[in-house]
Design brief:
4-stranded antiparallel beta sheet, 9 helices, Rossmann fold, transport, globular, 35% helix, 2 domains, alpha/beta, 264 residues, 6-stranded mixed beta sheet
Length: 264
């Protein structure tokens, strides 16, 4: 399980990195998010679990403001992102790194150029310094001798690592992971979990991880939020999750077909 550094008494917790207040979102007649409210603590790995179609990825897109809420607000570093203009939003997004479900690497770029992309776009560093920074980030995620390769030439696990290296290129304070272990075998999944914990430890980042992989959630989470039918069904530590008597949560955690969660 993730180790959360003690920042409660440092004053940093006065403004949480992420605070969600009464968030609602509907698509047509279907309400996907129903009044969600929670805070993410500085430096923690906050894991959001739930079945398919329960609103996990929709929530993450709201945190990045790739979607706008019907009602409610999300505060990132104290800024109400639903109310920001495009210039303000653009600046705030630089404090966040996103690791996409399928890595979303540029196929026509080498591994090194994928990681260097944001540095070229958003900094005034020299090309020499940009490449140096990109190589450093690749080293941090455990990749060597692959910088000239293209995404089609590396494994799925390597692509995930490149995606993480790209996400940390601008030294973000917040990292967002969308299903980081999807499509990986158990050994590679564990390796990605260890890398997520390494990013938390080495960079002191605050992370939100979207997953349906319960083994992964239990390994990396400081706290877990369980979304069910658009609402927060559970919010607590992994230990609290295991001890819960909620039949819905228990069925999901154990992966059982019998119970209150429908299987069709």
């Amino acid at each position: 399980m993730a180790v959360l550094r003690d920042s409660m008494n440092s004053g940093e917790m006065e403004i949480p990195p992420i605070r969600v207040e009464n968030l609602w979102k509907s698509f047509g007649q279907q309400t996907v998010l129903k009044g969600l409210s929670f805070e993410v603590h500085r430096g923690e790995t906050f894991v959001v679990i739930g079945g398919s179609g329960q609103g996990k990825s929709v929530l993450l897109k709201h945190v990045m403001r790739l979607m706008k809420a019907d009602r409610g607000e999300i505060y990132v570093q104290g800024h109400p992102i639903m109310s920001l203009d495009q210039k303000e939003l653009y600046a705030l997004r630089r404090s966040m790194g996103m690791v996409f479900q399928e890595s979303a690497l540029f196929d026509s770029m080498s591994v090194l150029d994928n990681v260097a992309f944001a540095l070229r776009m958003h900094t005034s560093l020299s090309e020499k310094d940009i490449l140096g920074e990109a190589r450093e980030k690749l080293s941090m995620v455990g990749l060597k001798n692959v910088e000239k390769k293209f995404p089609s030439e590396i494994s799925g696990g390597m692509k995930k690592r490149v995606g993480i290296a790209r996400a940390i290129a601008l030294a973000p304070e917040i990292l967002l992971y969308d299903e980081p272990t999807t499509g990986l075998d158990p050994v590679l999944s564990s390796a990605i979990d260890e890398l997520i914990l390494k990013m938390q430890s080495d960079l002191s980042v605050t992370s939100i991880v979207i997953t349906h992989d319960m083994k992964s959630a239990m390994r990396i989470a400081n706290r877990v939020l369980f979304l069910f039918q658009g609402e927060i069904r559970f919010l607590g530590t992994p230990q609290d999750l295991v001890r819960s008597n909620d039949p819905v949560l228990s069925q999901f955690v154990k992966g059982e077909t019998q119970g209150p969660i429908g299987t069709l």
